[in-house]
Design brief:
With about 100 residues, the protein is α+β, with helices and mostly antiparallel strands. Helix content is about 40%, strand content about 25%. Strands 1-2-3 form a 3-stranded antiparallel beta sheet. A hairpin with a 5-residue loop joins β1 and β2. The mean pLDDT is about 80.
């Protein structure tokens, strides 16, 4: 399956379900595709690993950074950085970049 096509399907499923993780999104995709008699999607195609860290500056300021890695090649495909932290919209957008 083309990644762009999968990204469109994921966006359709998570547009109003911002707190869903990859496993729940995969379940939604699986059920929707079964109902349409389309082939199943492997959970590994939906899965993306993410992590984060903070830089602490001498003046007490901090910079929060999170990034997302592709599950097959472990290559970082996107990141988000903010001095005030990030919210679920930032993380959703990051995950959809993959």
């Amino acid at each position: 399956m083309d990644d762009a096509e999968l990204a469109v399907e994921i966006r359709q499923q998570v547009s109003e379900l911002l707190t869903y993780g990859y496993f729940r999104v995969w379940g939604l995709l699986r059920r929707a595709r079964e109902a349409q008699l389309l082939p199943a999607i492997n959970v590994k195609l939906v899965y993306r690993d993410s992590d984060g860290f903070e830089f602490h500056c001498e003046d007490g300021a901090k910079l929060s950074v999170t990034f997302a890695l592709g599950c097959c090649d472990r290559e970082a495909f996107g990141w988000v950085a903010s001095p005030t932290g990030y919210n679920c919209d930032d993380i959703r957008d990051l995950m959809l970049e993959g």
